[in-house]
Amino acid sequence: MEGKIKMVVNILSLDNGPISREIVEDEYLIRRRAAEFGVPVITNLELADALAEALAGLGNGRFNKRGGTFLESCLTGSSLR
After folding, report:
1. Which residues are CB-contacts of 7 (< 8 A; sequence separation ≥ 6)?
2. Could you tell me how far CA 36 lies from the centroid of its own chain?
3. What is the CA radius of gyration of the chain?
4. How confident is the model at residue 75 (pLDDT cuts 50, 70, 90)?
5. Taking the complete model, does pTM exceed 0.90, yes or no?
6. Beta strands, E only, the chain
7. Number of Cβ atoms within 10 Å of the Cβ of 52
8. What's the Cα-to-Cα distance from 36 to each of 29, 47, 59, 63, rounded to whole Å?
């Protein structure tokens, strides 16, 4: 692999804090650059989770059957075993 970005997952922030304008601008720039270079962008949390579940199932021949989602386990660092 040559260090190329294959996909961007950019979930829109709902933060209304003092730096929210900067966050929104950063999110826009990330999505815009990805689109300019033809990189697929996922902006929907449910779709990102479904994709993670599908990829996990392809990688090891099984899906998470313990409750919770694969994406949640990645974010929390918990094991699916």
Report:
1. 39, 40, 41, 42
2. 19
3. 15
4. low
5. no
6. 8-9, 41-42
7. 19
8. 10, 22, 30, 34
